[in-house]
Specification:
alpha/beta, Rossmann fold, seven-stranded parallel sheet, two-stranded parallel sheet, 40% helix
Length: 338
């Protein structure tokens, strides 16, 4: 198939482009490059031997999106593009609602005009909010507690309404957890702009000398070691989950929801110890007060993805940290060094 990947130069997007190409698909990428680098795509092409068609296009420009569909006979879309920093979404909600919702509506309208009605939407476990018990299962009533998460929730609502109104649509909503790691080659990986918002890239930047130390927010939670538990997933496993969902909906109309996760929680200190093992030395850290809005623990029930997609995670926490460290060690400044 020919697959359009929005946000395809980003962390998860670039790994998914690689997985799609390895599965034999042709790939077209749309990205505005505000939080990513097209160097990622050059390196994917180096790994697969197949360059993806790239359009530096913003989804807010509906005419430009239409032009991409007019140029390429696309069969399906995997939609990653969007702003994703929780803290920024709280301080700048209008920016997030405009970018994420209007961009998605433009994409869906262009798809409909060009008779492309298969889409895998990269949603988030954030949609489960604070009120649900763990582990999270897909049938739970969702309710995100920040503007970023609400944009994911509202896009899920839009896609669900679209699928209910028009039986020609094939829609997968993928709710995933904390992606970490990198391609085992060390050539592509996570390159956050500014101070990382997530644990593992922050640890990696401390390990490589870009940050002084890791601040562990809260050591007194009701968890085995007092630190927060999260469901970590290797980015290669996650990319393959998107390809599995794409294959599943190819022959099935309707709206499908799947959690992509390991089904187990790892604590902040467990992740830190695993990363120290990969690096081969202690990593400076300090346990400080809790951070507002952090939940003590959450993880996925991923049994539906196993049953429907024959997909489950295959890589351990140690593998995630080893691969993430290989990427960071080989690319201390991310893609900007090239």
């Amino acid at each position: 198939m020919k697959i359009l990947v929005t946000g395809g130069t980003g962390y998860i997007g670039s790994h998914t482009v690689l997985s799609l190409q390895e599965a034999g698909h042709d790939v077209v990428v749309i990205d505005n490059l505000i939080n990513s680098s097209d160097e990622a795509l050059r390196r994917v092409a180096e790994l697969t031997g197949k360059p993806a068609a790239f359009h530096r296009t913003d989804l807010l420009d509906e005419q430009a999106v239409d032009a991409v569909f007019a140029e390429h006979a696309v069969d399906a879309v995997i939609h990653f593009a969007g702003l994703k920093a929780v803290g920024e979404s709280v301080s700048e909600p209008l920016k997030y609602y405009h970018n994420n919702l209007v961009g998605t509506l433009n994409l869906l309208r262009s798809m409909d005009r060009h008779n492309v009605r298969s889409i895998v939407f990269s949603s988030s476990a954030t949609v489960y909010g604070e009120h649900n018990a763990i582990p999270y299962v897909e049938k739970m009533e969702i309710g995100a507690n920040n503007p970023y998460g609400r944009t994911k929730e509202q896009i899920e609502d839009i896609l669900s309404d679209l699928g209910a109104a028009d039986g020609r649509w094939h829609i997968a909503l993928l709710r995933y957890f904390n992606p970490v790691g990198a391609h085992p080659s060390g050539r592509i990986g996570e390159d956050p702009q500014g101070i990382p918002n997530n644990l593992v890239p922050f640890i990696a930047q401390v390990a490589v000398g870009r940050r002084e130390k890791l601040m562990v927010f809260g050591g007194d939670y009701d968890t085995p070691d007092g630190t927060c538990l999260r469901d970590y997933i290797h980015v290669v496993d996650l990319a393959e989950g998107h390809v599995a969902a794409l294959n599943h909906i190819a022959e099935r109309a309707g709206v499908f929801r799947w959690n992509l996760g390991s089904g187990t929680g790892s604590s902040v200190l467990e992740v830190l110890r695993s990363f120290e093992k990969a690096v081969g030395r202690p990593i400076p850290h300090e346990i400080t007060g809790r951070r507002a809005g952090d939940l003590p623990a959450f993880w996925a029930d991923a049994t539906s993805a196993l049953a429907d997609l024959s997909w489950s995670t295959s890589k351990s926490l140690d593998q995630m940290c080893e691969d993430h460290w290989r990427w960071q060690k080989n690319n201390p400044q991310g893609y900007s060094a090239d």
